[in-house]
Amino acid sequence: MFLSVVIASKGRAEVLNETIDSLDAQTRRADEIIVVVTSEQDYNKKIKEISGVTVFLSSPGGSVQRNFGIERTSKDSDLVVFLDDDVELATDYLLRVENFFFCLPNVIAISGVPLLDIPEDGRMSRNDAKKRLSEPKNFKANVSFRDDLYGCNMAVRRSFLNFERFDENLVGYSYLEDVDLGRRLNRRGLICNYGGDSLIHLGVPGGRISQRRLGYAQIMNPLYLFFVKGSLDINRLIYSIVKVPTGNILGAFGVLGLFRKNVELDKARKERVKGNIDAFQYILKNGIDPKSVLNYKK
Protein backbone atom coordinates (compact mmCIF):
# COMPACT_ATOMS: atom_id res chain seq x y z
CA MET A 1 0.00 0.00 0.00
CA PHE A 2 1.37 3.40 -1.04
CA LEU A 3 0.87 5.77 1.87
CA SER A 4 0.75 9.55 1.48
CA VAL A 5 0.72 12.07 4.33
CA VAL A 6 -0.65 15.59 3.79
CA ILE A 7 -0.08 18.41 6.31
CA ALA A 8 -1.38 21.96 5.89
CA SER A 9 0.29 24.60 8.03
CA LYS A 10 0.64 28.35 8.40
CA GLY A 11 2.75 30.47 10.73
CA ARG A 12 3.88 27.58 12.96
CA ALA A 13 7.30 26.58 11.64
CA GLU A 14 8.68 25.09 14.86
CA VAL A 15 5.48 23.21 15.67
CA LEU A 16 5.43 21.80 12.14
CA ASN A 17 9.08 20.82 12.37
CA GLU A 18 8.43 18.71 15.49
CA THR A 19 5.53 16.94 13.81
CA ILE A 20 7.74 16.11 10.82
CA ASP A 21 10.31 14.71 13.26
CA SER A 22 7.58 12.48 14.67
CA LEU A 23 6.82 11.20 11.16
CA ASP A 24 10.51 10.66 10.51
CA ALA A 25 10.63 8.31 13.51
CA GLN A 26 7.90 6.00 12.22
CA THR A 27 8.64 2.28 11.99
CA ARG A 28 6.56 2.24 8.82
CA ARG A 29 7.61 5.39 7.02
CA ALA A 30 5.25 7.24 4.73
CA ASP A 31 5.98 6.83 1.04
CA GLU A 32 5.56 10.58 0.66
CA ILE A 33 4.98 13.50 3.03
CA ILE A 34 3.41 16.53 1.38
CA VAL A 35 3.63 19.74 3.39
CA VAL A 36 1.52 22.64 2.13
CA VAL A 37 2.35 26.08 3.54
CA THR A 38 1.58 29.65 2.50
CA SER A 39 5.01 31.27 2.59
CA GLU A 40 8.71 30.53 3.02
CA GLN A 41 8.42 31.63 6.66
CA ASP A 42 5.95 28.86 7.44
CA TYR A 43 8.53 26.09 7.60
CA ASN A 44 12.05 25.30 8.69
CA LYS A 45 14.18 24.59 5.63
CA LYS A 46 15.74 21.51 7.24
CA ILE A 47 12.52 19.53 6.85
CA LYS A 48 13.29 19.35 3.13
CA GLU A 49 16.32 17.24 4.03
CA ILE A 50 14.12 14.49 5.46
CA SER A 51 13.53 11.65 3.04
CA GLY A 52 10.12 11.73 1.39
CA VAL A 53 9.22 15.29 2.40
CA THR A 54 8.14 17.76 -0.27
CA VAL A 55 7.09 21.31 0.57
CA PHE A 56 4.63 23.28 -1.58
CA LEU A 57 3.37 26.85 -1.39
CA SER A 58 -0.31 27.55 -1.92
CA SER A 59 -2.97 30.12 -1.17
CA PRO A 60 -3.94 30.12 2.53
CA GLY A 61 -6.89 28.23 3.99
CA GLY A 62 -7.23 24.78 5.49
CA SER A 63 -9.49 23.44 2.73
CA VAL A 64 -7.47 25.05 -0.06
CA GLN A 65 -4.15 23.77 1.27
CA ARG A 66 -5.41 20.23 1.84
CA ASN A 67 -6.93 20.06 -1.64
CA PHE A 68 -3.66 21.39 -3.03
CA GLY A 69 -1.87 18.54 -1.24
CA ILE A 70 -4.31 15.92 -2.55
CA GLU A 71 -3.66 17.09 -6.12
CA ARG A 72 0.05 16.51 -5.62
CA THR A 73 -0.10 13.00 -4.22
CA SER A 74 1.53 10.31 -6.30
CA LYS A 75 -0.52 8.49 -8.92
CA ASP A 76 0.42 5.36 -6.96
CA SER A 77 -1.14 6.63 -3.73
CA ASP A 78 -3.60 4.23 -2.08
CA LEU A 79 -4.16 6.01 1.21
CA VAL A 80 -3.94 9.67 2.25
CA VAL A 81 -3.36 10.46 5.93
CA PHE A 82 -4.25 14.04 6.88
CA LEU A 83 -2.52 15.34 9.99
CA ASP A 84 -2.69 18.63 11.85
CA ASP A 85 0.70 20.28 12.24
CA ASP A 86 0.64 19.83 16.03
CA VAL A 87 0.37 16.10 16.61
CA GLU A 88 2.84 13.72 18.23
CA LEU A 89 2.67 10.17 16.93
CA ALA A 90 3.46 6.83 18.48
CA THR A 91 6.26 5.29 16.43
CA ASP A 92 3.90 2.64 15.02
CA TYR A 93 1.09 5.07 14.15
CA LEU A 94 1.32 4.70 10.36
CA LEU A 95 1.84 0.95 10.60
CA ARG A 96 -1.39 0.56 12.55
CA VAL A 97 -3.31 2.79 10.14
CA GLU A 98 -2.10 0.78 7.17
CA ASN A 99 -2.91 -2.55 8.81
CA PHE A 100 -6.39 -1.32 9.70
CA PHE A 101 -7.20 -0.57 6.07
CA PHE A 102 -5.73 -3.90 4.95
CA CYS A 103 -7.94 -5.77 7.41
CA LEU A 104 -11.14 -3.84 6.68
CA PRO A 105 -11.37 -3.28 2.91
CA ASN A 106 -14.94 -1.98 3.14
CA VAL A 107 -13.88 1.01 5.26
CA ILE A 108 -13.08 4.04 3.12
CA ALA A 109 -12.03 6.53 5.82
CA ILE A 110 -11.16 6.69 9.51
CA SER A 111 -10.75 9.26 12.24
CA GLY A 112 -8.01 8.36 14.67
CA VAL A 113 -9.06 8.77 18.31
CA PRO A 114 -6.30 10.71 20.09
CA LEU A 115 -4.88 9.26 23.27
CA LEU A 116 -5.06 12.88 24.50
CA ASP A 117 -6.81 15.70 22.66
CA ILE A 118 -5.52 19.20 23.48
CA PRO A 119 -4.13 18.16 26.87
CA GLU A 120 -3.48 20.88 29.44
CA ASP A 121 -5.38 23.31 27.17
CA GLY A 122 -2.65 23.20 24.56
CA ARG A 123 0.25 23.57 26.97
CA MET A 124 1.60 20.00 27.05
CA SER A 125 5.20 19.85 25.87
CA ARG A 126 6.42 17.57 23.11
CA ASN A 127 8.66 15.74 25.55
CA ASP A 128 5.74 15.00 27.86
CA ALA A 129 3.70 13.81 24.89
CA LYS A 130 6.50 11.48 23.81
CA LYS A 131 6.72 10.05 27.32
CA ARG A 132 2.98 9.36 27.40
CA LEU A 133 3.09 7.66 24.02
CA SER A 134 6.08 5.51 25.04
CA GLU A 135 4.27 4.09 28.07
CA PRO A 136 3.18 0.45 27.74
CA LYS A 137 -0.37 0.27 26.39
CA ASN A 138 -2.91 -2.47 26.05
CA PHE A 139 -4.10 -1.65 22.55
CA LYS A 140 -7.65 -2.52 21.63
CA ALA A 141 -9.22 -2.04 18.24
CA ASN A 142 -11.83 0.40 19.63
CA VAL A 143 -13.60 0.50 16.29
CA SER A 144 -16.95 2.26 16.02
CA PHE A 145 -18.82 3.57 13.02
CA ARG A 146 -19.40 7.30 12.58
CA ASP A 147 -20.82 9.53 9.87
CA ASP A 148 -18.17 12.25 9.69
CA LEU A 149 -14.45 12.86 10.26
CA TYR A 150 -12.31 14.61 12.85
CA GLY A 151 -9.53 16.51 11.15
CA CYS A 152 -6.61 16.36 13.58
CA ASN A 153 -5.80 12.94 12.12
CA MET A 154 -7.83 11.15 9.50
CA ALA A 155 -7.10 8.78 6.65
CA VAL A 156 -9.02 8.33 3.39
CA ARG A 157 -8.60 5.87 0.56
CA ARG A 158 -7.13 7.95 -2.26
CA SER A 159 -9.58 6.73 -4.90
CA PHE A 160 -12.52 8.31 -3.06
CA LEU A 161 -10.80 11.68 -3.06
CA ASN A 162 -11.32 11.71 -6.82
CA PHE A 163 -15.01 12.30 -6.05
CA GLU A 164 -14.99 14.33 -2.84
CA ARG A 165 -12.72 17.18 -1.76
CA PHE A 166 -12.65 19.74 1.01
CA ASP A 167 -15.10 22.61 0.47
CA GLU A 168 -13.09 25.71 -0.43
CA ASN A 169 -16.05 27.94 0.43
CA LEU A 170 -15.06 27.24 4.02
CA VAL A 171 -12.21 29.71 3.94
CA GLY A 172 -9.56 30.68 6.48
CA TYR A 173 -9.52 28.23 9.38
CA SER A 174 -12.08 26.16 7.39
CA TYR A 175 -14.15 25.39 10.48
CA LEU A 176 -16.10 22.08 10.08
CA GLU A 177 -14.44 21.20 6.76
CA ASP A 178 -13.61 17.77 8.20
CA VAL A 179 -17.23 17.12 9.23
CA ASP A 180 -18.49 18.19 5.81
CA LEU A 181 -16.05 15.96 3.91
CA GLY A 182 -16.84 13.03 6.20
CA ARG A 183 -20.60 13.38 5.71
CA ARG A 184 -20.17 13.33 1.95
CA LEU A 185 -17.78 10.38 2.05
CA ASN A 186 -20.21 8.52 4.29
CA ARG A 187 -22.64 8.41 1.38
CA ARG A 188 -20.05 6.40 -0.54
CA GLY A 189 -18.86 3.93 2.12
CA LEU A 190 -18.10 3.15 5.74
CA ILE A 191 -16.31 5.56 8.07
CA CYS A 192 -14.90 4.51 11.44
CA ASN A 193 -13.35 5.76 14.60
CA TYR A 194 -10.15 3.84 15.24
CA GLY A 195 -8.46 4.04 18.62
CA GLY A 196 -5.43 1.89 17.91
CA ASP A 197 -3.34 4.46 16.02
CA SER A 198 -2.00 6.19 19.09
CA LEU A 199 -1.22 9.89 18.94
CA ILE A 200 -1.59 13.05 20.98
CA HIS A 201 -3.18 16.13 19.46
CA LEU A 202 -1.37 18.89 21.28
CA GLY A 203 -3.67 21.71 20.20
CA VAL A 204 -0.87 24.28 20.26
CA PRO A 205 -2.43 27.77 20.16
CA GLY A 206 -1.47 30.49 17.73
CA GLY A 207 -0.72 30.97 14.05
CA ARG A 208 -4.15 30.11 12.72
CA ILE A 209 -6.98 32.62 13.02
CA SER A 210 -8.18 35.36 15.32
CA GLN A 211 -10.57 34.13 17.99
CA ARG A 212 -13.19 36.64 16.85
CA ARG A 213 -13.03 35.24 13.30
CA LEU A 214 -13.29 31.73 14.70
CA GLY A 215 -16.43 32.77 16.56
CA TYR A 216 -17.81 34.15 13.29
CA ALA A 217 -17.14 30.85 11.51
CA GLN A 218 -18.68 28.89 14.41
CA ILE A 219 -22.06 30.32 13.40
CA MET A 220 -21.71 30.93 9.67
CA ASN A 221 -20.22 27.59 8.62
CA PRO A 222 -22.73 25.20 10.23
CA LEU A 223 -25.65 27.24 8.88
CA TYR A 224 -24.07 27.05 5.40
CA LEU A 225 -23.55 23.29 5.68
CA PHE A 226 -27.12 22.71 6.87
CA PHE A 227 -29.16 25.07 4.70
CA VAL A 228 -27.03 25.31 1.56
CA LYS A 229 -25.23 21.96 1.28
CA GLY A 230 -27.34 19.64 3.39
CA SER A 231 -24.23 17.92 4.75
CA LEU A 232 -25.06 18.66 8.39
CA ASP A 233 -27.91 17.08 10.32
CA ILE A 234 -30.24 18.93 12.66
CA ASN A 235 -28.58 17.58 15.82
CA ARG A 236 -25.15 18.85 14.79
CA LEU A 237 -26.68 22.17 13.72
CA ILE A 238 -28.28 22.66 17.13
CA TYR A 239 -25.03 21.73 18.84
CA SER A 240 -23.14 24.23 16.68
CA ILE A 241 -25.41 27.25 16.94
CA VAL A 242 -26.73 26.70 20.47
CA LYS A 243 -24.30 24.71 22.60
CA VAL A 244 -21.08 26.17 21.19
CA PRO A 245 -22.11 29.84 21.64
CA THR A 246 -23.52 29.01 25.08
CA GLY A 247 -20.13 27.57 26.05
CA ASN A 248 -18.47 30.72 24.75
CA ILE A 249 -20.77 32.91 26.86
CA LEU A 250 -20.25 30.84 30.00
CA GLY A 251 -16.50 30.93 29.48
CA ALA A 252 -16.48 34.65 28.76
CA PHE A 253 -18.23 35.40 32.05
CA GLY A 254 -15.96 33.09 34.02
CA VAL A 255 -18.51 30.39 34.78
CA LEU A 256 -16.46 27.63 33.22
CA GLY A 257 -13.42 29.02 35.04
CA LEU A 258 -15.00 27.91 38.30
CA PHE A 259 -14.30 24.32 37.23
CA ARG A 260 -11.08 24.76 35.25
CA LYS A 261 -9.12 27.99 35.42
CA ASN A 262 -7.67 29.11 32.10
CA VAL A 263 -7.36 32.87 31.74
CA GLU A 264 -6.22 32.75 28.12
CA LEU A 265 -9.12 30.52 27.09
CA ASP A 266 -11.58 32.81 28.87
CA LYS A 267 -10.18 35.75 26.89
CA ALA A 268 -10.49 33.76 23.68
CA ARG A 269 -14.11 32.92 24.45
CA LYS A 270 -14.91 36.61 24.94
CA GLU A 271 -13.66 37.26 21.41
CA ARG A 272 -15.56 34.26 20.06
CA VAL A 273 -18.81 35.59 21.55
CA LYS A 274 -18.28 38.85 19.65
CA GLY A 275 -17.71 36.85 16.46
CA ASN A 276 -20.83 34.75 17.12
CA ILE A 277 -22.93 37.92 17.43
CA ASP A 278 -21.40 39.50 14.32
CA ALA A 279 -22.15 36.39 12.27
CA PHE A 280 -25.81 36.36 13.32
CA GLN A 281 -26.08 40.06 12.46
CA TYR A 282 -24.51 39.53 9.04
CA ILE A 283 -26.85 36.62 8.25
CA LEU A 284 -29.95 38.63 9.20
CA LYS A 285 -28.88 41.44 6.88
CA ASN A 286 -27.19 39.61 4.00
CA GLY A 287 -27.86 35.88 4.23
CA ILE A 288 -25.50 32.95 4.59
CA ASP A 289 -22.05 33.38 3.07
CA PRO A 290 -19.05 31.57 4.62
CA LYS A 291 -16.65 33.55 2.43
CA SER A 292 -17.77 36.75 4.13
CA VAL A 293 -15.24 36.02 6.87
CA LEU A 294 -12.56 37.17 4.41
CA ASN A 295 -13.94 40.71 4.63
CA TYR A 296 -14.45 40.47 8.38
CA LYS A 297 -11.80 42.86 9.69
CA LYS A 298 -12.47 42.57 13.41
Task: Describe the protein in words.
By secondary structure, the chain is α/β, with parallel strands linked by helices. Helices cover 38% and strands 17% of the residues. The protein has eight helices and eleven strands. It has helices at 13-24, 62-71, 93-103, 126-134, 177-186, 211-229, 234-252, 263-286, and strands at 3-8, 32-37, 53-57, 79-83, 87-89, 107-112, 116-117, 143-146, 153-157, 190-194, 199-201. It has an eight-stranded mixed beta sheet, sandwiched between helices. The chain has a three-stranded mixed beta sheet with strand order 5-11-7. Helix 1 (13-24) links the parallel strand 1 and strand 2 (32-37). The longest helix has 24 residues, at 263-286. The radius of gyration is 19 Å and the shape is globular. The mean pLDDT is 93. It comes from Deinococcus caeni. InterPro entries: Glyco_trans_2-like, Glycosyltransf_2, Nucleotide-diphossugar_trans. Residues 4-160 form the Glycosyltransferase 2-like domain.
Give the topology.
Layout: E1 3-8, H1 13-24, E2 32-37, E3 53-57, H2 62-71, E4 79-83, E5 87-89, H3 93-103, E6 107-112, E7 116-117, H4 126-134, E8 143-146, E9 153-157, H5 177-186, E10 190-194, E11 199-201, H6 211-229, H7 234-252, H8 263-286
Helix pairs in contact: 6-7, 6-8, 7-8
